[in-house]
Design a protein that fits this description.
This protein is an alpha+beta fold. It is 21% helix and 26% strand.
């Protein structure tokens, strides 16, 4: 137990009185018993989220059991998020059953949570407040642009002659957690500053602004860890920039107990009171969530000195007693049972209808892989992938937005799909997964902006501070995967992204399908607000989700992770024969049923080398060591596939390939070409030779000029190495030349003549890959399969006879897909080149032909002389 000198003025006053009595005449007076301290029994919940289900009666029974320990001095309080993100039994009835249950249990006061704002400020101050018999408190909620409180800041309660003040606040992150339109009239300030301001008013001696003997702070904000993670208070406070650290170390000493919430964590810590002697503490508590625990703090208040002492600081697990026993023992529990039974029965009329089936449990991520799930919003999950796939499937139709990628925020997933009691998925079970009734939107980000979205998983709020959840894992459709290195500097941790198996193009547009909450910047993913062409599909998430379940049943979990940590990859180019080693980790999911991976298959794109698999340890990490193969491309990619889960990890590597490459097109040995035109054979008969022996014709031919041509640069001729496609390239349809692909390639000159050589820039991302080059209107292939150089270029020659005018140059990949296209203007035929170049130089053959004519003339001449003699 620790004394909290929260009333320094009263303590000082008591000390002065004591000093004045020293030395005073002793007067006999009748003995008067000192008043007994008042035991204040504070019961607390947080993040109840409308849990109207089979456990509601036991929850109520736990509250009443603890109330019975101090029947005359109990206050039942809440830290917020009583409603919102609720199961179908409550959500389908606008959370009225939940408010009725809390009313029946005589909840005295509650902080507002962010979910109280789910349907907007007007809904909170209207419908919700009208149904609640308790006070909703929000001292840090202000009318926009002012410091004028928009909600009630505190409530005063008299408990056995002691005035207890309850001050409520909500997380400052609320604008990022709810739809902006509903809270446009208010702003959210620092919760600690608000509590300290109000606590100062309540202890300033001015009755006009309220006075209190004991002050309780209800913060809908909390620690990022707790009992489940075996974290300590000291570890949490080491995060000095966190909202929770400020709550513990900066909240006024006038506050006697601190209740927290929002982060769904479980802890009951005694924290040093700021400014007090070492060892003087006060309770700091959070109960987890969903009524699974009831927080109990008992404070002993000395009515003479004004000091409080902590007697009890604990979380009490929900009762396991039979409902009938609890109903019999406690009248309030009997009322709760009636409310709960009626709500469940009403919801069952529509909620029990089956919308589909599952083959195995599909769940959120679970801390340590625990079963049942202990939600972990910082890890990927089978549920995240499934819902993201549903978003993509629903919104991929151009009429609904044309989504390329589905994305879901982890806080949007509120329940799991389980195979107990059966494999059917009912309306209520499906609704419980996505209970917010968000609209489905699309927006288009560039590849560079999508990378920023992934970087923003490492969270910063609008002021640049790290929030209480420092990392939030986005769920992605399974056509996306990426690698990261968390040791790299902030905003530079994503090391590679692939969409549909291809590296993301930073400049290209990718349409994202998600909830309007996320695409308006929710959960601090602010880059989504920079998207273009943002469109509301007019679909509600819950309805689209149920339609997807029906169309795709039975649903099965995918245990392939969309991402992996990759560290130690060489940052500079390697050479064939080099040994490369790097570490891959976080390969295992923690969702229910996820297998533990044991090995990774290793392949090197474009190489015939066979590699041994890499072993994966129990933590889901592997060290991959390979030797760079001799046939590695300049822009190489290692692909790793986990044996058990199918997780695919891609690791790009730059390779320095030998400068000299094999001659691309075999050619016969050319005949040397003379440097001058040969002397023509005379057309007249030679003068007959006299009877004397004629002068013989010299038998030696003129020494030819060496004709060895320089080796062409690797980028300028088609490369047809051993790994080139075996079938001839085929032209893509003209419809494939979309506007989005225009100018994705470049040419060295856009105005050319027939016979001119073109250098075409494809991009270093395609280095080492085989492509085909085409010119059209009528498609003409230029050079067969060509291998892109390390500089990202290929070469082609404008064909002879190509009509003057505008033509398209197209580059297609080995699969025939268009990489890009651009336009050129052909003006005529270059004088020096009247034959189309097709990758084979004809000049040696022409020269050889001329030489053969010369030799033939000489032979004819010798024969004529011989005959005449």
């Amino acid at each position: 137990m620790s004394l909290n000198p929260s009333r320094p003025l009263r303590l000082a006053f008591a000390a002065v009185i004591g000093a004045c009595l020293v030395g005073a005449p002793v007067v006999a007076v009748p003995a008067v018993a000192a008043p007994l301290p008042v035991q204040l029994n504070l019961l607390n919940i947080n993040d109840f989220h409308g849990r109207i289900d089979a456990n509601t009666v036991k929850f109520a029974g736990t509250v009443e059991t603890l109330r019975a320990q101090h029947p005359e001095s109990t206050l039942f309080l809440s830290d917020g998020d009583n409603i919102g993100a609720s199961p179908y039994e409550s959500a389908s009835q606008q959370d009225t059953p939940t408010l009725d249950v809390l009313n029946a249990l005589e909840l005295s006061a509650s902080a507002v949570g962010n979910h109280e704002f789910d349907q907007g400020m007007d809904d909170l101050t209207g419908r919700v407040s009208e149904k609640a018999n308790f006070d909703y408190l929000g001292a840090n909620v202000y009318k926009v642009g002012t410091q004028t409180p928009a909600l009630q800041e505190y409530a005063l309660r008299e408990v056995q002659g002691v005035t207890v003040a309850v001050i409520g606040t909500v997380t400052e992150e609320t604008p990022t957690l709810v739809s902006p339109n509903g809270i446009a009239s208010v702003s959210f300030g620092d919760p600690v500053d608000a509590v300290n301001r109000v606590a100062g008013q309540l202890t300033d001696g001015d009755d006009a602004n309220g006075e209190a003997d004991v002050i309780i702070a209800e913060y809908h904000e909390g620690a990022g860890a707790g009992t489940v993670e075996n974290a300590t208070l000291e570890q949490e406070l080491a995060l000095t920039g966190s909202a929770f650290a400020k709550i513990v170390t900066k909240t006024s000493a006038a506050v006697d107990a601190i209740f927290t919430g929002h982060t769904h964590k479980l802890y009951a810590w005694n924290a040093q009171v700021p400014g007090a002697a070492t060892g003087v503490t006060r309770p700091v508590l959070q109960t987890g969530n969903y009524g699974e625990n009831i927080g109990q703090v008992v404070l002993s208040y000395d009515t003479v000195t004004g000091a409080t002492t902590t007697v009890t600081n604990q979380n009490v697990k929900r009762s396991t007693a039979a409902d009938a026993a609890l109903v019999s023992a406690f009248p309030r529990v009997a009322t709760v049972k009636n409310i709960t039974d009626a709500a469940i029965a009403k919801a069952a009329v529509t909620g029990s209808v089956s919308v589909g089936t599952i083959s195995a449990p599909i769940t959120r991520a679970s801390i340590g892989g625990a079963t049942p799930v202990v939600e972990d919003r910082a890890a990927p999950s089978t549920m995240g992938t499934l819902v993201a796939n549903a978003l993509l499937a629903t919104l991929s139709d151009e009429k609904k937005g044309g989504a390329d990628i589905g994305v879901v925020n982890p806080g949007g997933l509120r329940k799991d799909l389980l195979t107990t009691p059966d494999t059917d998925v009912s309306v209520s079970e499906a609704n419980a997964v996505l209970p917010f009734a968000n609209n489905l939107w699309t927006t288009t980000l560039t590849g560079a902006q999508f990378k920023i979205a992934l970087e923003q998983q490492w969270q910063r709020d609008s002021k640049g501070a790290v929030p209480s959840r420092p990392y939030l894992q986005l769920g992605l459709s399974d056509n996306v995967n990426y690698t990261f290195d968390a040791t790299r500097p902030e905003s530079d941790r994503i090391t590679g992204i692939w969409v549909d198996g291809k590296p993301i193009d930073p400049a290209a547009g990718y349409t994202i399908g998600s909830f309007n909450f996320l695409l308006t910047g929710g959960d601090n993913f602010r880059v989504f607000t920079e998207g273009t062409g943002t469109t509301d599909s007019a679909l509600v998430d819950r309805d689209a989700w149920m339609s997807y379940i029906t169309a795709n049943s039975p649903l099965s979990p995918s245990f392939a992770a969309n991402q992996a940590s990759v560290t130690g990859v060489p940052s500079t180019a390697v050479k064939p024969g080099d040994t490369v080693s790097f570490t891959v980790s976080q390969l295992n999911l923690t969702s229910t049923g996820a297998p533990k991976n044991t090995e990774l298959a290793v392949t090197w794109a474009g190489s015939k080398t066979v590699f041994a698999p890499a072993s994966v340890d129990a933590t889901g990490a592997a060290t991959v060591t390979v030797t760079v193969p001799t046939d590695a491309a300049a822009a190489s990619e290692i692909t790793l596939m986990a044996k058990e889960s199918g997780t695919t990890v891609r690791v790009p590597l730059a390779v320095t390939v030998p400068v000299t490459e094999p001659t691309p097109v075999p050619t016969p040995e050319p005949t040397p070409v003379p440097t001058t035109e040969p002397t023509p054979v005379p057309t007249t008969e030679p003068t007959p030779v006299p009877t004397t022996e004629p002068t013989p014709v010299p038998t030696t031919a003129p020494t030819p000029v060496p004709t060895t041509a320089p080796t062409p640069a690797p980028t300028e001729l088609p490369q047809t190495g051993s790994s080139a496609p075996t079938s001839a390239p085929t032209a893509a349809a003209e419809s494939a030349l979309t506007k989005a692909l225009q100018n994705k390639i470049t040419v060295n000159d856009s105005t050319v003549a027939a016979g001119d050589k073109l250098t075409i820039g494809v991009g270093t991302a395609f280095a080492g890959q085989y492509v085909s080059v085409w010119v059209r209107s009528t498609p003409i292939n230029l050079g067969g399969w060509q291998r892109v150089s390390a500089a990202g270029t290929v070469a082609a020659v404008v064909p002879a006879g190509l009509a003057a005018g505008t033509h398209s140059i197209i580059v297609q990949d080995a699969a025939g897909a268009v990489i890009g296209w651009t336009e050129i203007t052909v003006t005529g035929v270059t004088p020096a080149a009247t034959l189309a170049q097709t990758g084979l130089d004809a000049s040696p053959w022409l020269a050889g032909g001329a030489l053969m004519l010369l030799l033939g003339a000489v032979l004819v001449s010798r024969r004529r002389v011989s005959m005449d003699s």
